[in-house]
Amino acid sequence: MGNPRRLRVRWSILGCLFGFSLFGYMQRTGIAIAAEPMMQELGLDQVTLGWLLTAFLVGYTVFQIPGGVLGEYWGPRRTLTWMGAASLLATVATAITPRLASGVAVLAILIAARLLLGAAQGGLFPVATGAIRNWLPARNWGFAQGFLVTGAWLGSAITPPIVSALLLYFGWRAALAAVCI
C-alpha cells in the first residue's frame, strides 16, 4: 500500500493546499463584501472601488505564468511560503493603511496592496498543481485537483456570511484582517 508516514505527509500537503485555496478566495473577495462601510469611511466612490478590484485582477492575471515558473524554479514549498507571506502582507496592509496614511496615499497604498495580493495569488493554482504532481501518484491527481478547487468553492460559500458577521461586530478593518488568519 505505501509508507504510512508518506501517506500522512501527502494528506497534510493536500490539506495545506486546500487551506491556501480557501483562504485565498476569502482574501480576494472579502473587500467586495466590506466595500460599503469601507467606501463610507474612506470617502471612496464606485469607480475607486472598481480600481481596487481591478488592481487585484491585473496582478492575478499577469502573475499566473511567472508564479508557475517560480514554482518550478524554487519548488512548491518555498514558492507557496512566499506567496502566503505576500498575501498576508497585502491583506493586513489593506486593513491597517487607513490608520497609517491619509488622502491620496491611502488610495495608492490600497491599490498597491491589492496588486500585490493578486500577484501573490496568481501562481497559486499552477504551483499547487506542481506540489500535487510531486507528492501524489498520478492516479490521485484528479481527486487532488478536485479537492483544491473545492477549497475555492467553499471559500466562496463561507466568505459572505463570515465577513458580514465580522463586519457587523468589529468593523471592516477587523473583518478583512481576520480572513488572512
Question: Can you describe what's shown?
Answer:
This protein is mostly helical. It has helices at 4-33, 35-42, 46-62, 64-74, 76-100, 104-122, 124-135, 141-170, 172-178. The longest helix is centred in the N-terminal third of the chain and has 30 residues, at 4-33. The mean pLDDT is 91.
- Percent helix range: over 70%
Which blocks of ≥5 consecutive residues have pLDDT under 50? none
> Total number of β-strand segments?
0
SSE series: HHHHHHHHH
Overall shape: elongated
**Major beta-sheet overview:** none
Contiguous helical run count: 9
Rg calculated over all Cα atoms: 17 Å
Query: How big a fraction of the residues is strand?
Result: under 5%
User: End-to-end span in angstroms?
Assistant: 36 Å
Question: Could you tell me the mean pLDDT?
Answer: 91
Structural class computed from helices and strand pairing: mainly alpha
For this entry, give a set of tags.
88% helix; 9 helices; mainly alpha; 181 residues
Structure summarized in a few sentences:
The protein has 181 residues and is an all-alpha fold.
Strand and helix map with partners:
Blueprint: H1 4-33, H2 35-42, H3 46-62, H4 64-74, H5 76-100, H6 104-122, H7 124-135, H8 141-170, H9 172-178
Helix pairs in contact: 1-7, 1-8, 3-6, 4-5, 4-6, 4-7, 5-6, 5-7, 5-9, 7-8, 8-9
